[in-house]
Amino acid sequence: GAVVSQHPSWVICKSGTSVKIECRSLDFQATTMFWYRQFPKKSLMLMATSNEGSKATYEQGVEKDKFLINHASLTLSTLTVTSAHPEDSSFYICSAPPSGANVLTFGAGSRLTVL
Amino acid sequence: QQQVKQSPQSLIVQKGGISIINCAYENTAFDYFPWYQQFPGKGPALLIAIRPDVSEKKEGRFTISFNKSAKQFSLHIMDSQPGDSATYFCAASWGGGNKLTFGTGTQLKVEL
Fold first, then answer.
1. Mutate to test the interface with A, among B23, B98, B107 (most CBs of A within 10 A)
2. So what's the pLDDT on residue A107?
3. 3-class DSSP state for residue A86?
């Protein structure tokens, strides 16, 4: 079946540093990937749509300069949290639709803790 | 209009019982309604999904009931098991796209 892999699964960083999270589609190509943010015991909030070869589309209220998204290839999208602060601590989840499928496969998520 | 309202927020069911989670939406353009199951520290996994041209879909112990006129849909888990204890999210999308709007989630606990 379609697999989406995220790395790292958890990361702890100091305030002010930048953190990169990778999302890979392992056995399919994805021209589009989606990045979600989830707070503890809360729902998933769509942050942005990552588009291969072009700029990401951000949802209203999401800071483009804070959350940099790059979709460099058909199997890799990255989310970089720049100048991270404690309020950026969250669970970040990516997803992608396998080719021809109207279904989303989600990664296992990446837990970011900013000290 | 993009909201999907989900209830209850939490649910405790005895083993063997039926778990019922409800969702309601406003946007009549929604045409795809999946349910996701999420265990702590993991990403959501697709459980079952339905389109508005059918009123019910069953896969094993999981059934979606869909009421187009009321703009409501629900998940029924029959013979609930402790292993079903997880958070369940309903979601909706439209136009064949994959941009999902998620409900607020229901934390299910199945007790022995």
1. B98
2. 95
3. helix
Residues of A in contact with B45 (CB under 8 A): 106
Q: Judge: B43–A109 Cβ closer than 8 Å, yes or no.
A: yes
Binding-site residues on chain B for chain A (CB distance < 8 A)? 32, 34, 36, 41-46, 49, 87, 89, 96, 98-105, 107
Q: How far is CA A34 from CA A87, A114, B15, in A?
A: 21, 23, 36
pLDDT of chain A, 115 residues: tens digit per residue = 789 999 999 999 999 999 999 999 999 999 999 999 998 888 999 999 999 989 999 999 999 999 999 998 999 999 999 999 999 999 999 999 887 666 889 999 999 999 9
d(CA B77, CA A84): 41
Instruction: Establish if A7 touches chain B: CB-CB under 8 angstroms.
Output: no
